[in-house]
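Entry for the shared binder. Reason: the reviewer on the internal report wants the predicted structure included alongside the sequence.
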Amino acid sequence: MTCFDAYLILTAPNPCDSLTGETSDGGHVKFPVAGRYAKRADCVWTVGGRNNDGVIKVNITQMDISRSASCSDDALIASSSDGTVLQKFCGNTPTVQTFQERSLVFRFTSGAASTAGTGFSLSYDFTDADDSTLIV
């Protein structure tokens, strides 16, 4: 008679699961892949960093992030590579922003007591430095 131990290892789903893709011209980020985002999420995506002209155009096509004053609870935060916060996004209004940066760091954070939304979907393009729509 043989005895052996059996183990079942359960892993929690990654709260930062996202759908991403990048080419030499731009890319996209969709978070979360499906359903609603988790409470206490803290997720980071870095885009760019290549030989672009230092301008990134961001098109947030879908956004359902719990709205709060100054986006202090749940937020998608766009920062420069040195950590300077450039823009905070929350609520449910799609937007287009242009940043004069070679790379951007997107960070999504959610609070413990907030009402989780369906997140966001954005695309970004590396554009020419003489883009007349530059606002940030």
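Summary line for the report: The first strand starts at residue 19 and ends at 22.
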